Queue: 4 jobs
Job 1
Amino acid sequence: MKKAFITGITGQDGSYLAELLLSKGYEVHGMIRRSSSFNTGRIDHIYRDPHEADTRLFLHYGDLNDASSVNRLLREIHPDEIYNLGAQSHVRVSFDVPEYTGEVDALGTVRILEGIQEAGITTRFYQASSSELYGKVLETPQKETTPFYPRSPYACAKAYAFYITVNYRESYNMFACNGILFNHESPRRGETFVTRKITRAAARIKLGLQDRLYLGNLEAKRDWGFAGDYVEAMWRMLQADHADDYVVATGETHSVREFAEQVFASLGMQLAWKGEGEREQGVDVKSGKTLIEIDPRYFRPAEVDLLLGDATKARRELGWEPKTTFPQLVKMMTDSDLAIAERELRADGK
Ligand code: NDP
Ligand code: GDR
């Protein structure tokens, strides 16, 4: 039985990847952080009591900021595959906590790579690299050969992680890959990322639980895919004959404005836009009510305007293709948040 070790198992991608690896017969070990409140909500449905005979999912306390915990887990688990998904993953927040973001996202990566060396284990390593590396657009669509131009402390930290992964591959002949993943979303997406923020707010507005949604830059364009499809690409990278770096994307781009329009329309609210800049508002055509307002606090000191990925290499060499279309993704997330809002309404006794 193959053993996998996942950092960031409690996050969006970690939960889908753990499901995928368990379905393929792996024994899965995940690093979790001590938290004052429960942080395992995304994996509770696959977790079994460790005393049960056929348990294959094991959780271990650790932290990417704590090299001794990383080293201990690598020595004890001896994984065949390591997926480094753990990160302070919010781009806007990285401007507030730049040093911490560097500690976890950049140095956390070298802690694992060095831990592999120290433990003397042979393993395959996946690094969660990001389309944020492309930042300021130098070429469209972006592919593996497009130069990087990071635009946030998050992206700068991920640039270090990208290059240190390449460096350990070249220096020590380690099987280490970077997946340069474009934005991917799901009903399990964190509530402060823009897609989930929109689907959650639109569902709550529809049911009268909330009046308004406050957003930042509506013009930013992203290549949005489904997280469930993207974890398959991570796994395929580690099954390949040789280690390499791959772009994973859908090849379609949409603006934040367009995403919002589609979500609200799917709930029967057609948006019309009034005003300009920070005064712009999204108004429901039927009722005339203002549903969306701009709040400058959500603007970033430096923005990434346009992301559009070319995943030809992943298709050609890994046989990977996205399965979920943009309208399917919008529907999946909106339906899920509507069901959550309905439960909230019932719990309120309204
Ligand atoms: P999430 O924010 O949903 O999950 C991040 C995970 O990292 C959580 O499990 C979190 O734990 C864990 N974590 C945070 N800090 C630490 C730490 N100090 N030590 C150990 N674990 C830590 O991110 P996603 O699932 O969306 O993304 C997974 C990875 O892929 C991240 O590295 C992200 O930067 C990268 N990425 C994501 C993309 C996307 O569109 N989703 C695109 C490209 C790259 P806790 O639950 O306790 O907070
Ligand atoms: P991103 O995702 O920064 O691309 O990083 P996010 O959903 O946070 O932002 C996407 C775009 O939407 C604009 N935006 C807003 N964003 C947020 N969060 N909240 C708002 O209210 C809002 N209004 C407009 C942003 O300015 C931005 O242009 C994600 C993360 O998962 C990273 O970890 C990952 O590496 C990249 O995707 C690829």
Job 2
Amino acid sequence: GWTSSSVIDETVALIREQVGSERVICALSGGVDSAVAALLIHRAIGDQLICVFVDTGCMRAGEREQVVDTFASHFHIPLVVVDARQRFLSRLANVVDPEQKRKIIGEEFIRVFEQEASKLEEEHGPIPFLAQGTLYPDVIESTSHDTASTARRIKTHHNVGGLPEEMVFKLVEPLRTLFKDEVREVGLVLGLPEEWVWRHPFPGPGLAIRIIGAVDEGKLETLRAADKIVVEEIRNAGVYRELGQAFAVLTPLQSVGVMGDFRTYANVLAVRAVTTGDFMTADWARLSPNLLARISNRVVNEVPGVNRVVYDITSKPPATIEWE
Ligand code: XMP
């Protein structure tokens, strides 16, 4: 039968056999899959693993700090944080089209990652292996657009940006035989914090596709503050785990409000929360009116630039989960 400790032992043995004494590089996204993949590989080959976290500037509040605290401070795994916020932000300037945003972020991610990998090779010698958090369902359905398939492009798009040398990695995919619930179980056994293990999925392009219209630093700051409140209140109400995803969307729509003696004219924030099995279909979550009231009050009072909160009551289909 399936037990997480036998899966861990078998996977660790397979990784050792595949990698030997060579180096592995792993891009941490902040999500469950890359984290569990990294922990398994680290258990197998220790400091032959180097993790890289690319800060795109489109991450949620505290995300970078959590990766550093957990991986570097707690697990003592070699971790390089690349602050690429300005690069991403300047490429995203004035870009409105969602698919264009995705393309830019995907390409820039690969460039930044490859540059970092080259630097690390100069420092430490060859890094022949790239870790990927590919799950069993991705192996069968290789068209899914989650973070695993984003990472997979690193191998195939190695000429993006006319980089001098092409990087072709051999893949290490320790989660290839596992389903999501098994990955979570393995994560828990390996000591990944519960909060991380149960984290909702977060799209690779991040907050950039949750700001409708052009992305800039001010809007990112606004959305980050609002999203933090949404997630905090949902956690405090004890319903986070029942939801498939819950987040804030910053709309470009401005509306009139009143605060004290003043008339305000500021943005509308949308709250999205869904229940779902497979993310192909989803139902809008029946969050309690009191929870919605707490979210709304806090956002309007605490987040400058937002004076109205609306709740998205559309299911998928016909709507998608994300707004872009
Ligand atoms: P939609 O909006 O299509 O989302 O209902 C379904 C699931 O996919 C995620 N999603 C993405 N994930 N890169 C990703 O890594 C993307 O560009 C992307 N777009 C949507 C979304 O968050 C949801 O979980």
Job 3
Amino acid sequence: MKIEQNHIQDTNKSGLQSHKENFDFLANNLSKKGANVEAIVSKLKDFQVAIPSWALGAGGTRFGRFSFYGEPSSLEQKIQDIGLIHSLTQTAGAVSLHIPWDIPQDYAAVKDLANGLNIKFDAVNSNTFQDQKDAKETYKYGSLSNTSEAVRQQAIQHNLDVINIGNKLGSKSLTVWLADGSCFPGQTNFQTALQHTENSLKDIYKGLPDDWSMLIEYKPYEPNFYSTVIQDWGTSFMLANACGEKAYSLVDLGHHLPNSNIEQIVSVLMLKGKLGGFHFNDSKYGDDDLTVGSIKPYALFLIFNELVYGMQNNPQNPDLAWMIDASHNVKDPLEDLIQSLEAIQEAYAKALLVDQAELKAAQLNNDVVKCQEILQDAYRTDVRPLLAEARRLAGGALSPINAYRALGVRDTLIEERGKHTVATGL
Ligand code: AOS
Ligand code: ZN
Ligand code: ZN
């Protein structure tokens, strides 16, 4: 299935007049406050977030998995699904592949397909947290940190293979997330595990093309429940520094202990030029991978406020690889992704509304109340007409969810692919 431009325009028709009124009203008010509305809308239009190939099927837990029907069963179908949400939102112009779940059979065909849908290949993800079919060594007791040299070599080689695959598709970064750690005190030697990990990462780094970056993800626990080798941003930052200038930390919103000040982590990493990638999701308890903005939208806004500040003030930090890293048990995965994209754009738009000069002046005066007023005034603004306008200008839907339903996308996918489908991957 492909969504044609004229179908999107048809679904937009009935809402166009009221959108125009809402947008003009908001734009007027914001302009009076000194905001450059045109610049904000154009920034929203340019902001693209990668969709990971594992987010397109219904998720699940060890307690069960319920199909949503019509799920993609090949890499081509996954890219087609991203094409569908991209045509409606104009925000999902990239895919992040997971190897070995998504090894292309025919590279030229996969590239052509993505090209035709305006989808780029973002970071490629390696997988050393599962044993692969016919693999000689097992990752049961770790991969890059394993006490066995043969296991470490196999995991290093896998990462080099992933770089090679990504290179053929035009990717420019490798994301390394390790499940390595221990479940019980005494099970591993912390120092040895970290040292092995550092050396292994350095070996992978040696195989990184010049124009590539390596993104090192951290996570405090799960699947290991006592210790994780790369447990926090400090460890990831240290490893990135040890590897070299093309290595960066990657922040996943779900990978922090409760109440961590993620916006401060983002800010420090950007100051040091070491924030390379970002995984969006939301959570109540741990790495819940819920829809972005569904639980803590204010925290998301505060994080975006630091991201925007960093993008404007930290030329030492590279452009970030943005990705949604979510999974869901009870929603249509495509609707879930549309909601996540909307929440990301909303937080970004609100952060763009913060008057940085005014905030700085209030900070210099130690006017604590004023500082809070400035942030909350931006946060409380209903920016949805700005998002809709950015989408409209780019040829997308005024309301992607409504259009998705009106166009009967899921029903068509079920017709095409059948009811009893199982997506590959997680
Ligand atoms: C795992 O918790 C991490 O968030 C990874 O980024 C990602 O979810 C994993 O690589 C998926 O396979
Ligand atoms: Zn992640
Ligand atoms: Zn995660």
Job 4
Amino acid sequence: MTHTITVIRGDGIGPEIMAATLHVLDTMNLGLAYEEADAGMVAQEKHGELLPQATLDSIAKNRIALKSPLTTPVGEGFTSINVSLRKKFDLYANVRPAKSFPNTKSRFPDGVDLITIRENTEGLYIGDGQTVSEDGEIATSTSRITHKGAERVVRYAFELARKTGRKKVTIVHKANILKSTSGLFLKTAREIAAKYPDIEANEMIVDNTCMQLVMRPEQFDIIVTTNLFGDIISDLCAGLVGGLGLAPGANIGDDAAIFEAVHGSAPDIAGKGVANPCALLLAAGQMLDHLAMPAEANRLRKAIVDTLEAKDNLTPDLGGSGTTMSFAEAIARRL
Ligand code: NAI
Ligand code: MG
């Protein structure tokens, strides 16, 4: 079966890492077809808008997108394109694996293999009730958690545990202080956890979680949490395994899914051909899992690990002197 994927090459290093990623995918002969769509600054320049309707239509039709980083111009009136996409397609589960790889700058060369699942549509990120009093003395912002929103993301976490043979889900919260919002999230999570007796569930307060992650990351398997906590924790986890060049993310909804690198468009190295393509390649691996091609996804991940192991054409962020494309070619040779 041919899957058509919306491909967004994006801004900054985006086109470079996408070319590298598609080169590797093409080597695998997966029967994927690509539909190109624009978003970000490149779309602003070509079509006069950051997120053209044609791009939204393409994602709605194909239901799968592989997306490079986008630059959101700084200034009044620009909402983040990523936040817009998550809202538009109700992509409620942000799935961010963090796994130790060989020859990276990780302090835990083989101790980390966890997935953070961040609720992606609610919490403090709804953007409601953001006010600052006229005298500039008082600011407010509203957080909203719904039973439905908590339920679907926690269920996703437990289903993923079952599907991937993971054993434990840690529910991360601050219900001792944020009694209404974090309280509802925790209460709902407990209800769902009770329906999965085969998966161990535990609860941890978010500040302690940060300390535990740095001290003993090997105790974690899957973490599920609300939007803001998940945003911060998943970056912490990327740091545990050697940084942004190796951190992929999937935004999953019932009707569409968008796969991307966690990092941004890296304007400081754009156009130099030295960006590490691994984060987007690992996101492509998540996409293959989602397309029910787990053997192909594992084949891709193994080729990446083998290339890191051999220190073959690693990019400068990993201490090598390879280029984005020579690194990708080294990975492709191992497939
Ligand atoms: P960034 O992630 O682009 O860069 C941070 C640092 O990491 C830079 O030194 C960069 O060179 C390095 N880096 C990032 N990816 C790398 C890679 N693949 N290989 C080697 N080094 C890499 O974050 P920054 O500078 O805060 O943001 C730049 C732009 O990216 C902003 O316009 C921001 O809005 C956008 N952005 C977009 C995201 C998305 O589309 N998902 C996510 C985060 C930021
Ligand atoms: Mg973030």
